[in-house]
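Dear colleague,

Following up on Tuesday's group meeting, I ran the structure prediction for the two-component complex that the binding team flagged. I've pasted the input sequences exactly as they went in, so you can double-check that nothing got truncated or mislabelled along the way. The structure tokens for the whole assembly follow below. Feel free to forward this to whoever is handling the docking comparison.

Inputs:
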Amino acid sequence: MNGPDRSSHLPPVVELNGVGRSFPGPPEVHAVSGVDLVIEAGEYLSIVGPSGSGKSTLLHLLGLLDVPTTGTYHLDGADTSAMGEAERAAWRGRKIGFVFQSFHLLAHRTVLENVALAMVYTGVPRRERGDRARAALERVGLGHRIEFSPSTLSGGERQRVAIARALVSGPSLLLADEPTGNLDSVTAGSILDLFDSLHDQGLTLAVVTHDDAVSRRAQRRVRTVDGRVHELEVEAA
Amino acid sequence: MRSFRGTPPHPRVRSSFSLRDLVDEALAGVAARPARLALTTLGTVLGVAALVATVGLAQTAGGQIAGRFDAVTMTEVVVAPRDPGATPGGNRGESTSTAPAALLPWDAEARLGRLAGVVASGTYSRLNVGADRVRTVPVVDPSGAAEQTMPVAAASPGLLSTLDGEVVTGRFFDEGHDRRADPVAVLGAHAAERLDINRIDVQPTVFIGDRPFTVIGIIDGVNRRTELLDSVVIPNGTAAALYDLTGPDEVRIRTALGAAQQVGAQAPLALAPNAPEGMEARVPPSPAHVKADVASDVNALFLLLGGVALVVGALGIANVTLLSVLERVGEIGLRRSLGATRRHVAAQFLTESVTIGFLGGMVGAAVGVLLTVGVSIARDWTPVLDLRLAGGAPLLGAVIGLIAGTYPAWKASAVQPIAALRSGT
């Protein structure tokens, strides 16, 4: 598909073409319609918009948690619309790292086990998991909390564990849903600093938020309005 | 810095979830809430324990009863002609023309001695002495004080040891007395008491009708044919000569433990090789039958109770697993976001409920075995337990867990990851 000189023609990480998602009614709801969106490798994108604007639906579509009713979605050049449920799950585990507002850490497992959980379903050999989880935790600055229980960590630390879990599979896209929604402003700032440094390392990020301050940290911003996506001018920092 | 780009997607990828990972995740899920685990398994524990204890106690009790029978009944075989009343008269040593098969040989003891498993044997016959009475003086005493009506029996020398009897004083008659048809008699303990005879060194004589017999011994302690203790017993040869006895009424055999069935099958052939069908051997019921009978009627109620407890246990597992699915919606959504398929999620919850059932079955089996042993100790029994039962009980628990977990697992697999991840739990 890419020919011999793929380095110069890397496909975009995300390529949405006329994507729509409607929920059968009555009345039928078009949560998202006619969305064309391309996210190139290494981009840091934020998606803002009021609730009910289709922001969440777009997040689910990007995360392969939902299937568009119209249009196509290419992830790393592969047409995900043609995939079955099981293959989509496998693709999701390998290509997308999720970060949630409420962290979703397993309370009864250590920090290390929580991170290693991301490798259970992606075919990583068991003996490699410990080292890779440790490396991911080092990257988010939690190398000293490896054997802790999540319940003893602060909110910011918990979110770092969740980010380490999202990174450990080497995803093509880090998809964050209101990552600072449960954090105070200082802690939120440190998480956003971490995102910046991950972006500097070449990671592709898409952050869904309703918070302008969060979205301003992104290199590129889009706004969802009535199920459609509009590019926003990036203000000078 | 390494690139975060994935390689372009040429091969189809599949989520993997190895068996070891599945077991690890399920065990971690089960172990996360120990108190709840204990309560969840309670129903299964009770049900399995009730079943194991019931069956175990039935087997133990069955073993006890059979063991008690073993002491006497289980080693006793009696052979008698099929229809002794139809035997026509005849003399000793002569063949009877009409029904030779229906007559026990005089040398029954010698014939049976050759069979493996025979410990002792002896013949017994009740003699018809008509109106003859037993006295200790030769004249008819009008006062009748020392005159008794008592049974007279004929026996072979081996009968005493066959019946586990003992000689109180004097001796039992032997083959010589038998062969010579000596007029000797042995008295049962009760008979001796009634005749006022308690020592034999004075060579007392008893008269049956007008015939004198020298008393050579007094016996006691037989565990079968206790009428012997009330009888005057004379040798077969004497009975044949004086009372025209044509053949023994029956042969009693004491066998080695466990040999009764076999001896019972062989004895008729040894006693009447030409017509073994004319002999009837009464053997004790086989131990297997005794146990089966006990197991079947003692325990129906307890088995029913155990079954009810198992159903309750299954409902408990189903209930708690379903609750756990609702509680762990966030975890399910997370696992789906990490690449788990619906099938993986279902497999994990099913494995968890099977594990719970298996644990319940194991604890229940242990409790059941302890109950069986405890009751056995209290009753001074030997505990008997089928090992397959103890081994099978945890499997039964696992099957219960499997059945109970099916619906919750299906519910878990149907959780929508979107809703789950947004739920904030």
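Chain B touches chain A at residues 1-9, 12-18, 20-21, 25, 28, 31-32, 330-331, 333-344, 417-418, 421-422, 424-425 (CB under 8 Å).

Cheers,
M.
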